[in-house]
Write a structure and sequence with these properties.
GO terms for molecular function: RNA-directed DNA polymerase activity. Keywords: Coiled coil, Nucleotidyltransferase, RNA-directed DNA polymerase, Transferase. The protein is mainly alpha-helical. It folds into 2 domains: 123 residues, no CATH class; 166 residues, no CATH class. It contains 10 helices and 4 strands; from the N terminus they run H-H-H-H-E-E-H-H-H-H-H-E-E-H. It has a two-stranded antiparallel sheet. Strands 3-4 form a two-stranded antiparallel ribbon.
Length: 306
């Protein structure tokens, strides 16, 4: 924890843009954590090797009849140290595999890595079928996906349908003012806490578990970044990057249409959308007709009039 606090205080920011300021600090922290993690993993492996050698030596002494209390106590200390290192490895594997597993239970690295390798194999794209021809060259596969989704998500040429009618339900002036009022610190904190702790991180690599644990440290920068968005109405360049991934809809997908794209958006985007969502929820029941069963909390399809 001290490492994160010290690194954050040294992180270079951007005094002219609160949103870029947060992104730069997160990027700096990410780089430093990677450097620390690389050295920590290397030292942990060396330490584990030494602990295993020490454990073997102590077991040999105990088996030879030299099992004094001090040796037995030392053996327990070595086992606890090894358990702590294994526990760290288990947490890292858990984050990669993204499954629910009790960290306090026995680590099964073969299980973790087996699940991880299976998921990688399932989502890997080795080629696609086009007009009965199998394409497996990376450039051809990329071009097929690009053309397919570019055509599908292109802006339509024809005009959208418009409705010339009056809607019976509308918000009161007080409700409109409340929706457009300044975002409070409590709203932003609630938006952070509404997000899952161990959800897949965005490009910056930080989950909301990080924001919760170090909220006192990052609170000021996060709030300033969110307020910057509501003041200017847009994300600054480079602050809304996302990872696009193709997920197979069916097993053994081999055609472009068998995949669907998803975007792994960043934490700042999720916070802002949660703030907007929390503001809209209380007023949706006012403007959404009673026969509509979607988008209103507490309504079910069986509640309709038909």
């Amino acid at each position: 924890m001290k490492f994160v606090v010290d690194t954050w205080s040294l992180a270079p920011g951007d005094n002219r843009n609160d949103m870029r300021n947060l992104m730069k600090k997160l990027k700096f922290l990410k780089i430093k954590i990677r450097e620390w993690n690389f050295g920590h993993i290397s030292s942990s492996r060396v330490e584990m090797k030494h602990l295993q050698e020490e454990l073997n030596r102590l077991d040999t002494e105990i088996e030879s009849g030299k099992g004094m209390d001090v040796i037995i106590s030392k053996r327990m200390e070595v086992i606890n140290s090894m358990h702590n290192i294994n526990k760290t490895y288990a947490i890292e594997s858990l984050q990669k595999v993204k499954i629910k597993w009790s960290v306090e239970g026995d680590e099964n690295s073969h299980f973790f890595h087996g699940i991880l390798n299976k998921r990688r194999k399932q989502i890997s794209i080795r080629g696609v079928m086009k007009d009965g021809i199998w394409l497996d060259k990376p450039d051809q596969v990329k071009e097929e996906f690009l053309n397919h989704f570019r055509d599908r998500f292109a802006r339509p040429i024809e005009n959208h349908v418009s409705f010339d009618m009056e809607f019976p339900n509308s918000l009161s002036r007080a409700q409109q003012e409340e929706l457009e009022s300044d975002v409070t610190h409590e709203e932003i904190k609630r938006a952070v806490w509404d997000c899952g702790v161990d959800k897949s991180p965005g490009p910056n690599g930080f989950t909301f578990g990080f924001y919760r644990q170090f909220w006192d440290l990052v609170e000021k920068d996060v709030i300033s970044a969110v307020n910057y968005f509501f003041k200017h109405g847009e994300f600054s360049s480079g602050c809304n990057s996302s990872f696009n991934a193709l997920i197979p809809k069916i097993p053994n997908a081999n055609m472009v249409k068998d995949f669907r794209p998803i975007s792994l958006i960043g934490s700042l985007y999720k916070i802002i959308t949660n703030v907007l969502d929390n503001r809209l929820v209380p007023v949706l029941s006012v403007i959404v007709h009673e026969v509509q069963s979607e988008f209103v909390s507490g309504r079910k399809i069986m509640d309709g009039p038909f």
